[in-house]
Design a protein that fits this description.
With 94 residues, the chain is of the alpha+beta class. The protein has a single domain, classed as Thiol Ester Dehydrase, Chain A (Roll), CATH 3.10.129.10. It has two helices and five strands; from the N terminus they run βααββββ. The protein has a five-stranded antiparallel β-sheet with strand order 1-3-4-5-2, covered by helices on one side.
Length: 94
């Protein structure tokens, strides 16, 4: 059974302003950092990551992750309001 945590970046998060002016989104690197922290991996190698939809500052996101028998972690980031898939991938633990 996957684990889930909700994450929300502040509406005025400093990285969003430059990503993109007038149409801010949360950068993919911040989404991946949230995944690593949620899964409690501390450090890991992102084996694959696919970004499908943007996350806007202030929108809540749910990070779903599951540790496989191999020790790798699969993840999905979904917008909390409508469960739209934002990103997915696999992390190999360091």
């Amino acid at each position: 059974m996957p684990d889930v945590i909700e994450v929300q970046f502040a509406p005025d998060h400093p990285t969003a302003a430059g990503h993109f002016p007038g149409n801010p989104i949360i950068p993919g690197a911040l989404l991946l950092d949230a995944v690593l922290q949620a899964a409690g991996t501390g450090a890991g190698v992102i084996r694959s990551a696919k970004f499908l939809l943007p996350l806007r500052p202030g929108e809540p996101m749910r990070v779903h992750w599951e540790t496989l028998a191999s020790g790798a972690v699969t993840f999905e980031c979904r917008r909390a309001l409508d469960a739209a898939l934002l990103a997915s991938g696999i992390i190999e633990l360091a």
